[in-house]
Design a protein that fits this description.
With 313 residues, the chain is mainly alpha-helical. The chain folds into two domains: 71 residues, Multidrug-efflux Transporter Regulator, Chain: A, Domain 2; 181 residues, no CATH class. 67% of the residues lie in helices and 2% in strands. The chain contains 15 helices and three strands. Strand 2 and strand 3 form a beta hairpin. It is rod-shaped, with a radius of gyration of 33 Å. The protein starts with 6 loop residues before the first strand and ends in a 7-residue tail after the last helix.
């Protein structure tokens, strides 16, 4: 471009795609001053003005305020410094917008009223420390008195959500639901009971071993896949395999009492909220979500009940 070429404001508007009014506005504020004036007094602009206008338009499209744009084009502040500041500001705005989107998405899905929306909003805005306190209170309630057992500190860690610094909308939604579950007193009671049953089953010497849920899940998965009827004779080998394995692990006889104990364990674990908590935990922590154990527990519960002895008169 010829550095001596001069453009009228109309020509400059055609070259840049900006309106004459916009160019005059920037010119009057000294952001893109005219290079000189014609003999008739009309503003004229050179190639540098074209470049400045292109930069001004780009920065305005990116949301930079006029005072900052003037400092950039006048080289009072480096463009890289302004870009870094605005990138950080946008990151904050994006986080806020994700939180808002998650709250509104959950509220719309549930048909929430004002009180629930307010509660969801409060949960979404918790600080890292506040989130950690809420989860710690839940886990302390569930595992109170069991922390001296070697396996439990690791279990507690594995059940602790850690929302990342830049969570996705899905992770925020999962956090909102998990936080509500953590505050549910009935869910806390259910999980506390399950933790104590787990502890009782492991109150035997030896290395760490699978619990009742894991034994049932592993043995029943093929039966579920094959579509076996839990009440039919074809399920007998599956039931026998589970009870035999469970008896071996707990060092108890494989009898009616053991089956009642096992049914109690499976019934306590077959709480859909437990599967849901573990699913939400995986979403928040970025783990593989895996499959729910509920179907296996339900299948085995039906199988055990179908084989329970008839009550005596």
């Amino acid at each position: 471009m010829d550095g001596d070429t001069r453009y009228s404001i109309g020509e400059l508007a055609r070259r840049t795609g900006l309106t004459v009014k916009a160019i005059r506005f920037y010119s009057d504020r000294g952001i893109v001053p005219p290079t000189d004036r014609s003999r008739a007094g009309y503003r004229r602009y050179d190639a540098d003005a074209v470049a400045r206008l292109e930069l001004v338009r780009t920065l305005r499209d990116l949301g930079v305020d006029l005072s900052t744009i003037r400092r950039v084009v006048d080289r009072e502040v480096p463009l890289a410094e302004v870009a870094a500041a605005h990138a950080e500001a946008l990151a904050v705005q994006i986080r806020v917008l994700r939180l808002r989107r998650a709250v509104f998405t959950v509220a719309a899905r549930r048909g929430s009223g004002p009180a629930e929306v307010d509660d969801l909003h409060r949960l979404a805005r918790l600080t890292t420390g506040e989130r950690e306190h809420l989860v710690a209170d839940f886990l302390d309630t569930v595992f109170a008195g069991l922390g001296d057992r070697p396996a439990y500190p690791g279990i507690v860690v594995s059940m602790t959500p850690a929302l990342p610094d830049e969570p996705s909308t899905e992770q925020i939604e999962a956090w909102l639901e998990l936080a509500e579950l953590s505050r549910d007193s009935t869910f806390r009671g259910s999980m506390r009971r399950l933790a104590r049953q787990h502890a009782a089953d492991h109150d035997v010497p030896g290395l760490p071993r699978p619990d009742a849920v894991a034994v049932v899940r592993d043995a029943v998965a093929p039966a579920l896949a094959a579509g076996l009827d839990p009440t039919g004779p074809e399920a007998d080998p599956v039931v026998a395999a589970v009870t035999s394995r469970y008896a071996h692990l707990t060092q108890l006889p494989d009898d009616a009492d053991l089956r009642r104990r096992l049914l109690d364990r499976v019934t306590a674990a077959n709480d859909p909220r437990r599967d849901r908590y573990l699913h939400l935990l995986s979403v928040i922590n970025g783990w593989s979500t895996g499959g729910a154990v509920g179907p296996a527990l339900e299948w085995f519960s039906r199988a055990l009940r179908a084989r329970a002895p008839e009550p005596t008169a």
